[in-house]
User: Fold this.
Amino acid sequence: MISNDILGAVAAMVSEQGAGEAVVSTMRVRWPNLRFTYCSDDDMPPRLGPALTAPGFNLYLIANGDHCLALTKDPDVAIGVVVAEVVED
Assistant:
């Protein structure tokens, strides 16, 4: 489960430190029971929008599937967060 408090804390960390592998590493230490990954927002599928949008990045929720990780909009089944950097063209 990803609470609104955790999602807000993740967004605050990314806003302060910037989107990237370094902030994801920090999150893994702070919340060792959750999964975190980083990518470009261009790599995210358009069919399921972000759980949180902020200047320079979007946050997507990761759900645990049977065999593979999947995205979800449901924070109750979320096990992690994708930090997706938005790069302006």
Notes: Residues 52 and 59 are 5 Å apart (CA to CA). DSSP finds two helices and five strands in the chain.
